[in-house]
Fold:
Amino acid sequence: QVQLLESGGASVQAGGSLRLSCAVAKHNADNYCMAWFRQPPGKKREGVARVYTIGARPTYAQSVAGRFTISLDEYKNATYLQMTSLTPEDTAMYYCAARSGVCNTFNEAAFAYWGQGTQVTVSS
Structure:
């Protein structure tokens, strides 16, 4: 079992930056594929970034590549999403998710564990 708790969402101006945090509570030493998803208002949830372990190559959605960075801190059991050059199109509820096994998909059905979400609002 894995419990996830996001924080760090806020309202910011376009061009600004935010760092989202996801506290990870798990009861084993297994590695998990960690991912960030987002759901803009009135739209479907979409994958934003994912990574398996420290040192692994992350994967990003095209819409955020070069602006967002996913990272892991295994000592703190946390996952982060550093977001820069934010635009109003980045406005969404952001979710942290985890899955065991391979880390090769943004299919949300493949992720068994989810946080409750944290809201990011970007104003122009």
Remarks:
- The mean pLDDT is 95.
- DSSP finds no helices and eleven strands in the chain.
